[in-house]
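Ops channel
N.P.: pipeline sanity check, posting one input/output pair.
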């Protein structure tokens, strides 16, 4: 066993405790870790322990990232040797932390910012040369585990709170070797509605009305605290009509919205 397990994932400098139980009371034992070419890249001599097993404590394997098979060599008191290569790779070296990236951050109704009560859906991608064991969002009450959303994808829903300005979601990932990575994801919180500074209608004559076929020019000055106005529109209900007339306003200049009807 390595660190008490049949297979382990560790980084290159992690300590590894090796324990081997062999039948036939060999005089000595050694283990070689083999690369993909079946070449020994690390040789470890084992010492007999009080319980009859052979053991060694390696402060660090100091190997490149990858999977390594093990070849065990037993030697009896007459110098006869038997070597056995284990079928599986008991040792995986992973010295690279997980890689985190944002796949998508979706706001409700096509918004580009969030207001209090909005639910944002964040999907992140977590990749590792070994195995990703946990992906979580950091909260004041502790980590909140993300839900698996596909191959290497993890999802979490975030409810927007009060206030205005930039807010940050911090995602962390851990691999089987115990290495961690973090990813800050920033979004904008906007709980202040836009302000209509002024609105007016310009008629083709000095009269506050227009005849059929004449053009009325609508104009509005609109501002939002620290945010751009997504859209501005004019809405009215015509006489004897149940459906309101909605007219989108174009933006020829900063804060200025206009339309002709």
């Amino acid at each position: 066993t390595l660190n008490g397990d049949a297979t382990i994932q560790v980084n290159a400098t992690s300590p590894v405790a090796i324990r081997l139980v062999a039948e036939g009371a060999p005089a000595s034992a050694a283990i070689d870790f083999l690369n993909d070419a079946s070449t020994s890249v690390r040789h470890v001599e084992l010492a007999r322990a009080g319980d009859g097993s052979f053991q060694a404590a390696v402060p660090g394997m100091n190997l490149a990232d990858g999977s390594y098979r093990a070849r065990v060599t037993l030697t009896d008191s007459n110098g006869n040797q038997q070597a056995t290569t284990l079928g599986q790779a008991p040792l995986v070296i992973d010295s690279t932390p997980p890689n985190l990236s944002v796949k998508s951050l979706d706001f409700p109704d096509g918004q580009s910012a969030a207001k209090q009560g909005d639910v944002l859906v964040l999907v992140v991608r977590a990749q590792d040369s070994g195995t990703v064991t946990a992906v979580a969002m950091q909260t004041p009450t502790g980590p909140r585990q993300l839900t698996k959303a596909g191959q290497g994808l993890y999802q979490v829903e975030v409810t927007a709170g009060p206030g205005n300005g930039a807010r940050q979601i911090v995602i962390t990932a851990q691999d089987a070797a115990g290495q961690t990575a973090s990813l800050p994801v920033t979004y904008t919180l906007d709980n202040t509605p836009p302000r209509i500074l002024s609105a007016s209608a310009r008629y083709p004559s000095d009269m506050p009305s227009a005849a059929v076929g004449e053009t009325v020019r609508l104009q509005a000055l609109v501002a939002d605290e620290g945010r751009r106005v997504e859209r501005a529109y004019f809405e009215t209900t015509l006489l004897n009509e149940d459906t309101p007339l909605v007219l989108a306003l174009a933006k020829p200049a900063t804060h200025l919205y206009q339309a002709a009807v």
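N.P.: looks fine end to end. The chain has a mean pLDDT of 89.
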